[in-house]
Write a structure and sequence with these properties.
CATH class of the domain at 81-107 and 209-398: Alpha Beta
Structural class: alpha/beta
Amino acid sequence: MKKILGLKCISCGKEIENAEYACPSCSGNLDVVYDYKSIAKSFGKKDLAANGDYSIWRYLPILPMDSLKRIPSLKIGVTPLSHIPRLNDELGINNLFFKDDTKLPSASFKDRASSVTVVVGLEKGKEIFTTASTGNAGCALACMSANMGMQSIILVPKTAPRAKIAQILLYGARVIAVNGTYDDAYDLSLKASERFGWYNRSTGYNPYTREGKKTVALEIAEQMAWDVPDYVFVPVGDGNIISGTWKGFMDLYRLKWIERLPKLIAVQSDKSDSITKSFEATKNMASLGGAADIKIIPVQATTIADSISVDLPRDGISAVKAIIESKGDAVRVSDEEILNSIKYLAQKTGIFAEPAGVASFAGFLKMFRDKKISSTSKMVCLVTGNGLKDIDSALKVSGSPEIIDPQISELEKIIK
């Protein structure tokens, strides 16, 4: 069965039979186009229910690789979809869920994209893999490389959290710290991969990152017995997670596995809000002829949420399209709201998230308190990264790690 028809440019709409990365005509990002009619003939809900492989690879018929011969041995995907009654009761709602990707091997959502792109790269005969990253994408690629015995080269800004750089190094990857921003590292990664022939996993530039990230939507739908949520709150930086989430739900809709689609809410720090600005500019246009009319407005990002700190989103057009097509919205939150949400989420649910990972929850809280969302809605927040990846941010709201208690001497007397 030939399941992939080819690639299509998100910007100009040109259909391309095969390309390594970007559109050869306009340099726009590419999307993988599937033959859904053909897939539906041999892949249904019953087939999925009978599959005992509880990882992203259970969705192989709508993933871009040919087989499972080269997949990593680590378990990727099928992370918890947690409903915390205590928090729901406190907020006065019934159906708030958290998709907890802190449980993935490298402790972030980016394992989804890195695992898929690595398998695709291996099928293409690639041997050296690279990516630009503020930390999590690099950790994920280094993790997959360590598991599969491959070489990876990670370009990060020198300002990336030390915990993430340490994690990358411990996996055995080569780290190149760039004097500049994530965007500078991104541009350098493209030039390096072109010159040295490394396979580039960088967000947006590699069309298969979206294919890995869409698996979160496939899992949410299956875990909810195909009754999809009303809203999905997504932390947004480069835009690839929200575009991938939308792609996953659209895959299921085209296969007629779900009857409706959720609204996607893009959550950004007000100190890194390019997608939000671009969405606002687009929705205020008198008419939208297509993706070519979407203009991405760059910013100077300074947010503490490093994983969503981006000047010029590399999958911005696709991200704005996802918000518009899902009839969703975009919301800004302050860094203070993000930090406070780390503590609130941890204390009420036991889920410890880094700043970018908790941004979705901060966005939900803001919209809910502003009465923009009904208390009866079914909602999912994507929690994309573990709090231990940026302990400095966590300490800003948790206080000193030292235990200082004036009653400790009395306690010692009792124990003795």
